[in-house]
């Protein structure tokens, strides 16, 4: 394991995708006391066509999963509501999510995906998006992160075990 890798064999990763970026997080600890290992946002180079962007995301996610070696990956699904005209955005996001799910599976990483309601339920909560507005998640200070990064952190924390 790398010097930047997780502190235990219990690390989990979370992913929140946008059509033009991925927000990812790796957490360790327990579901009651998550510990942030790392969290970042990254984007494919502008101007690339779709196959090149998807390939870039696959390589970047491979690097992240190999570096941190999480046991599980939680992908925060796109929710299919909102204004018309979002179809292209949802399709772009779904393609990147599909690349992430297939990649994790091929690397032997357990994958679970779900909407915010599913992620909240895994945390034993009905609060959902209310958690995102708070300054911390069960003692994990995430005040420096934006809402989408917090969703990635929360997704990863939802797959931690009780202890």
From TrEMBL:
InterPro entries found in the cross-reference section: RNaseH-like_sf, RNaseH_sf
GO molecular function: nucleic acid binding
Alphabetical list of SUPFAM superfamilies matching this protein: Ribonuclease H-like (SSF53098)
Protein's recorded name: Uncharacterized protein
